[in-house]
Specification:
This protein is mainly alpha-helical. The protein has 2 domains: 109 residues, no CATH class; 73 residues. 61% of the residues lie in helices and 4% in strands. Strands 1-2 form a two-stranded antiparallel ribbon. The protein is elongated. InterPro entries: Luc7-rel. Keywords: Coiled coil. Pfam families: LUC7.
């Protein structure tokens, strides 16, 4: 936290903000390790997805406009080429990662559409969740009946089984959320709405959704971040 605050102050007030007025300021050199090489080349990927699921966290390097200017004006050299290659490599890895996410999302939609119940689409996750919920409710009813009969021991045993299933259900939900499955996809499935995967950022979208929701997605940080990170755009700008 202290390092982040120091970095922000350096970017806002300059790296020499604490120097004595009579002291000579250190000359800026783009080759200094304190500067973010990605920012010098084009932009820092850490700035693209702030407060989204794809958030990369705070960049540990300085984003200095003067250093960036010096980098742009510098003649081609080995270090400059290395910076540019590192930047493109990072962008390539991010694009490859989102491409895998898109493929995985499409596979999930196929799996979701392959599970039907009474002509209604039921996602595999929802099917498992429904099964656990039914078993839990059944155990609760049986425990209540045992308690009514005065069979306390049996009621306690049934409630212990119920607690175990609740833990299993909670684990399933957590795994489900960590895998990045969209709540939107579940809602759409329950309402029998057709889904598709965004070819840019991998988000789940409802086919024929309201224009406002579509616009919100297209102008969202995550979508725009991957648009900016697309190598076809990076290489042409």
């Amino acid at each position: 936290m202290v390092d982040v605050a120091r970095q922000l102050l350096d970017e806002l007030m300059g790296r020499n903000r604490n120097l004595d007025p009579s002291a000579s300021a250190k000359e800026v050199s783009w080759t200094d390790e304190e500067f973010c090489s990605y920012f010098l080349v084009k932009f820092c990927p850490h700035d693209l997805f702030v407060n989204t699921r794809a958030d990369l966290g705070q960049c540990t390097k300085l984003h200095d406009d003067e250093a960036k200017r010096l980098f742009d004006e510098a003649k081609p050299c080995r270090k400059k080429t290395q910076y540019e290659e590192d930047f493109l490599r990072f962008c390539t890895n991010m694009i490859n990662e989102v491409d895998r996410k898109i493929v995985k999302g499409k596979q999930r939609l196929l799996l979701m559409n392959s599970k039907t119940e009474g002509g209604r689409t039921v996602p595999k996750y929802q099917e498992q969740l429904n099964s656990l919920t039914e078993r839990i409710n059944k155990l609760v009813r049986e425990a209540e009946e045992a308690g009514t009969r005065g069979d306390v021991e049996q009621a306690q045993g049934l409630m212990e089984q119920c607690d175990q299933l609740k833990e299993e259900k909670e684990t399933l939900v957590k795994q489900h959320e960590s895998n990045g499955w969209s709540v939107t996809a579940e809602i759409a499935a329950s309402q029998e709405k057709q889904m598709e995967v965004c070819e840019v950022c991998g988000a789940f979208l409802i086919v024929g959704d309201a224009q406002q929701r579509i616009d919100d997605h297209l102008t969202g940080k995550q979508h725009l971040g991957y648009v900016k990170n697309d190598l076809r755009i990076v290489l042409c700008t």
